[in-house]
Amino acid sequence: xxxxxxKEEVVGYYNSIKEDNPDMSPPLAALKALVxxxxxxxxxxxxxxxxxxDRCIAALSESESxxxxxxxxxxxxxxxxxxxxxxxxxxxxxxxxxxxxxNHWVNKMANARQTIARLAEPFISHGxxxxxxxxSRVVMEAFKEAVSKGKMFKVYVTESQPxxxxxxxxxxxxxxxxxxxxxxxxxxxxxxxxxxLVVVGxxxxxxxxxxxxxxxxxxxxxxxxxxNKPFYVMAESLKYLDIFPIEQSDIPAAxxxxxxxxxxxxxxxxxxxxxxxxxxxxxxxxxxxSDIGVLPPGAIVxxxxxxxx
Length: 309
Fold this sequence. Notes:
Layout: H1 2-20, H2 26-40, H3 46-63, H4 68-81, H5 91-110, H6 112-120, E1 129-132, H7 137-148, E2 154-158, H8 166-175, E3 180-183, H9 188-191, E4 197-200, E5 204-206, E6 211-214, H10 217-226, E7 231-234, E8 240-241, H11 253-256, E9 277-280, E10 287-290, E11 293-295, H12 299-308
Parallel strand pairs: 1-2, 1-4, 2-3, 4-7, 5-8, 7-10
Antiparallel strand pairs: 5-6, 6-9, 10-11
């Protein structure tokens, strides 16, 4: 019963946070839910603390299985707060110390988009032509920052099949007063000669220095490389995922195919399922712009290791 109560409590916090803040990213909402759970529940041993926190992370991951970034962000959260110095004999003081660290980290992550937008703004010039793919909250924040600085620029956005998420990007950009054209995913190569730079978000940053993102990102990166156009990735550091893919087949099936969305499928029964995520190797990425800084793609791994190991 206690296990069920913990799961229901943390998922309730998550749903409440998302309802109050619909534009908040799922992983950040999950982190805030975990902090609220820690503040509301007193644990008396480190074993109990770890068990209950693991249970909450599992519940959040299961409740929003289509958002694999939730599990990745929660694992970073767990790793970060448990780095605290267990110098107090009284565990309650240790717990309060971990809650303090958790609040500090989550508040920093809450400002990540704004930090990235400020770092990215100089890369977007007035009068330029930008290509973006699908819908990314952090990329939208960067576009808003550039517009707030008086910059006007044209944006090509891919239709982004199969869910046509590019149309959402187009509508929001039109509200900013920017000229926008939605293009077919298959027209990227045709349009690339007009493009000055490419900016995309990422579902995950991975150990190779590459990214996992909406299907079609890899095609765009290859076209940009061929035309010698800069390809920039904007993503929060909490999207770091501790895997090292080399090929597309190395992407975990649960991320690439969203198997939980299809309960009739058995694990591994994905041969005919359209992949929703692809892998872009670091050699196609010019710069990664994150809340940690503007980095060459390989440097994100060193930065994450220094933070969380």
